[in-house]
Design brief:
By secondary structure, the chain is α/β, with parallel strands linked by helices. The chain has one domain: 3-Layer(aba) Sandwich (Rossmann fold). Helix content is 33%, strand content 13%. Strand 1, helix 1 and strand 2 form a beta-alpha-beta unit.
Length: 153
């Protein structure tokens, strides 16, 4: 997905009665990168951020190696299930983070889009998945800073 045609500003869209920013993580299968990112944001952002994830072609299950890599650092994503993104969810978020979904990711005016070009952990061993996990963590921490949300310890 090209980010040239999307807004680089914070979204003007808000949900009535909700002050926490919403973030949607998108990748094709919603089984690895987006699930790890959502796990980090839930853990580090606590209730100060609303977290969503989805895919354009959801897998049947979350990548087991991604689950293991996250459990190594105390974040459990084993109970998560890949799901498709929906317009309802897209309407609720301020920031959409894409991770290798190319042109199949939705683009709506008024949303802030960020593309994280990350290696797909599908079919990869734990060493590479750990590297992707650590890159995602750094990206999530940076995103929290951009949102003005202090990361939980």
């Amino acid at each position: 997905m090209s980010t040239e045609h999307v807004s680089d500003q914070a979204s003007a869209v808000s949900v009535p009665g909700v002050s926490a920013p919403g973030v949607l993580f998108l990748c094709i299968h919603n089984a690895g990168r987006s699930q790890m990112a959502a796990g980090f944001l839930r853990s580090l952002g606590k209730e100060r951020v609303r977290v969503f994830s989805g895919g354009s072609e959801p897998a049947d299950a979350v990548n087991a190696v991604a689950v293991d890599a996250m459990q190594e650092i105390g974040i459990d994503i084993a109970d998560q299930r890949p799901q498709p993104w929906t317009m309802d969810v897209l309407d609720q978020v301020d920031v959409v983070v894409t991770m290798g979904c190319g042109d199949v990711c939705p683009v709506l005016p008024g949303k802030r889009y960020v593309d994280w070009p990350l290696t797909d952990p599908a079919g990869q061993g734990i060493e590479l998945v750990r590297q992707v996990r650590d890159e995602i963590r750094a990206n999530v921490e940076g995103l929290l800073g951009e949102l003005g949300v202090e990361a939980a310890s």
